[in-house]
Amino acid sequence: MTALTLGDYENLARARLDRLVWDFCAGGAGEERTLTANMAAFDDVRLRPTVLRGASDPDIATRIFGDRWAAPLAVAPMAFHTLAHPDGELATVRAATSVGMPVVVSTMAGRRFEELVSAAGSPLWLQVYCFRDRFRTQRLIEHGERAGMNALVLTVDAPRLGRRLRDVRNDFRLPPGIMPVNLDGDGFSSPAAHASAELDPTLDWSVIDWLRSISSLPLLVKGILTASDAERAVRAGVDGIVVSNHGGRQLDGVPATFEVLPEIVAAVAGSCPVLVDGGIRRGRDVLACLAVGAAAVLVGRPVLHGLAVGGQEGAAHVLGILIEELTDAMTLTGTPSLADIHPGLIGH
Ligand SMILES: Cc1cc2nc3c(=O)[nH]c(=O)nc-3n(C[C@H](O)[C@H](O)[C@H](O)COP(=O)(O)O)c2cc1C
Ligand SMILES: CCCCCCC(=O)C(=O)O
């Protein structure tokens, strides 16, 4: 079968990956209501095209923190791309570079920061998990900064890992050789045990000042779901916000990200870029997020599907499909540039 959509890639990847690895990547917390809701929110969107607008060749390039992105799209931080393909994040970074897209590299990446930065032609941001041991976190950030990462993305929705029932039932352990190679001295094979032993469950807003004291990189917070937290983040002086429910993997029952995106964009009122992730599987989903005010979107699991199916080439094809579908949706809604995207494109 020739894969034409991200859904095709998902089906192919499911057939290739070990079932326990598949469950770890695909699964969500609890009954997976939020996981399902993320995608359902986009299914309910109806676009309202305008005609005769001469939008045959839409300009989809954008700038974030002064860097040019070929499209308002980046790869979301995900642990252990090496679960999907032995080249792991190296293949992802090469794939993203081939289409001019940034990658947010997880604290739990399976390949070294240095090799990722040398392979990258687009920005790389470092996702940060804050550990109970602050010096460990500091070493991670200094390592990322030294290697050449361009921004920090602090994940704020994971004082502990969500209750992922598939992994509990499977007693999921990382296969031999899969490890967070940028962290010193780690002997864990269970992500859940690792998280409960090491993530700082007492984290509060003072962490922003602490991060500012150790790094001058732009700082985003990932995992915001309410207007009041978005306002709090702006007051704390962050450079960007990622509206995220961790792909439905943390607290089941929280809203779909697309549902809360408008209220967060309104609360932030242009103070900093608002990005969003969760359930984005088509170019028109990207368009919908931009229409309600997102500066860009992050794509998670589909990248792992591309890797599982065809390594670097598969991941590049997945990202290329999204770009092509976004361009197509813009042409067909009569939207010649990103600046022409507006909330009126969405109907109910
Ligand atoms: C296998 C997997 C690993 C993930 N690891 C991380 C991580 O290390 N740090 C993080 O902030 N988010 C992590 N996430 C959450 C993603 O960054 C993102 O929020 C989510 O996957 C977006 O939803 P989508 O997969 O529906 O696109 C992970 C998600 C998956 C599926
Ligand atoms: C401290 C170990 C956490 C690894 C889990 C990665 C992750 O965020 C996920 O959603 O899975």
TrEMBL record:
Domain FMN hydroxy acid dehydrogenase: 1-348
Domain of life: Bacteria
Pfam families registered for this protein in UniProt: FMN_dh
GO molecular function: FMN binding; oxidoreductase activity, acting on CH-OH group of donors
Binding site for glyoxylate: Y129, R164, H246, R249
Provenance organism: Frankia casuarinae (strain DSM 45818 / CECT 9043 / HFP020203 / CcI3)
Homology family: Belongs to the FMN-dependent alpha-hydroxy acid dehydrogenase family.
Active-site residues from the entry: H246
Keywords (A to Z) from UniProt: Flavoprotein, FMN, Oxidoreductase
Protein name per the record: FMN-dependent alpha-hydroxy acid dehydrogenase
Residues holding FMN: 77-79, 106, 127, 155, 222, 244, 277-281, 300-301
InterPro entries in UniProt: Aldolase_TIM, Alpha-hydoxy_acid_DH_FMN, FMN-dep_DH, FMN_HAD, FMN_hydac_DH_AS
Cofactor(s) listed in the protein's UniProt record: FMN
